[in-house]
Specification:
The complex is a heterodimer of chains A (167) and B (100).
Chain A: H1 2-22, H2 26-46, H3 50-75, H4 86-109, H5 121-127, H6 129-139, H7 142-162
Helix pairs in contact in A: 1-2, 2-3
Chain B: H1 4-24, H2 28-53, H3 57-87
Classes of the chains: A mainly alpha (167), B mainly alpha (100).
């Protein structure tokens, strides 16, 4: 049952991500990308990471995609007049396929067995996923967390400077 | 129980699709969306490994990737608007200011 559900969600994710790169109209690409994000959020729930699924929907499908759709509509971008040349297109697809084959070979040869940590389903159910993430974030990863605030401040300043009249 | 390999293969497929999108499209916003797709493929890998190795560090990393993606979206889209004001286009073929 779980495998069937995974296959359905994975198929929807792959099809919608293919639509992202094949659609001529950027708005349709953005909507397909939102669909992909929702499929990934579903997979995160299956992987017992409900907090990650929530911020996937809130941050990605909410904030970032709203920004992208807003810019597409603000600039009133029409469909592309013509794609890249056939040569560039062929090279792009070839690179993608090569990447896929490479990863496939790597996965087929690897054995993914190593020392396990102490987080299991029972612990996540008992303590709660958000609490575990929060504890880890505010103890082991406190410095990166604080640095993130500087990064976001820099992004805000950058966005404001870039939207000045004369640039 | 879905195996770790299934998640990794799905993630590889999504990453490859994102790469093809970056290399074959001309619209800067679609290229940007393909980059987001690649970031999400990597996030899926992190969370799958995090579950199967019983360690939350991967999910913390996903948290930081999302933060960087949000900052990137804000600055990148501001750049695109600034470029559009000057050139009336966001086609990557028109981005040739530094070409000689």
């Amino acid at each position: 049952m779980e495998t069937l559900f995974f296959l359905i969600v994975a198929a929807i994710a792959v099809i919608s991500s293919l639509l992202v790169i094949t659609n001529k109209n950027p708005i349709n690409s953005a909507l397909s990308l939102i669909m992909t994000f929702f499929c990934l959020a579903t997979l995160y729930v299956m992987l017992e990471a409900p907090f990650m699924a929530a911020i996937q929907v809130i941050v990605y499908a909410g904030a970032i995609m709203v920004l992208i759709v807003f810019v597409i509509m603000l600039l009133n971008i029409r469909s592309e007049s013509g794609g890249r040349t056939a040569h560039a297109r062929f090279m792009g697809v070839a690179t993608g396929l090569l990447l896929l084959v490479l990863t496939g070979c790597l996965l087929a040869k690897s054995s993914l067995s190593t020392a396990r940590g102490n987080i299991d389903s029972a612990m996540i159910a008992k303590v709660g996923h958000t609490e575990l993430i929060g504890k880890s974030l505010f103890t082991d990863f406190l410095l990166p967390f604080e640095l993130t605030s500087i990064l976001l401040l820099a992004a805000i300043v950058g966005a404001v400077v870039l939207s000045k009249k004369k640039i | 129980m879905v195996s770790l390999h299934s998640y990794l293969i799905l993630s590889a497929i999504l990453f490859a699709i994102g790469t093809v999108g970056v290399l074959t499209r001309r619209n800067a916003i679609v290229i940007f969306m393909s980059v987001e797709l690649m970031l999400n493929a990597v996030n899926l890998t992190f969370i799958a490994f995090s579950k199967y190795l019983g360690n939350l560090d991967g999910q913390i990393f996903v948290f930081f990737v999302m933060t960087v993606a949000a900052a990137e979206a804000a600055v990148g889209l501001a750049l695109m608007i600034a470029f559009f004001k000057n050139r009336e286009s966001i086609d990557t073929e028109d981005m040739n200011l530094m070409k000689w």
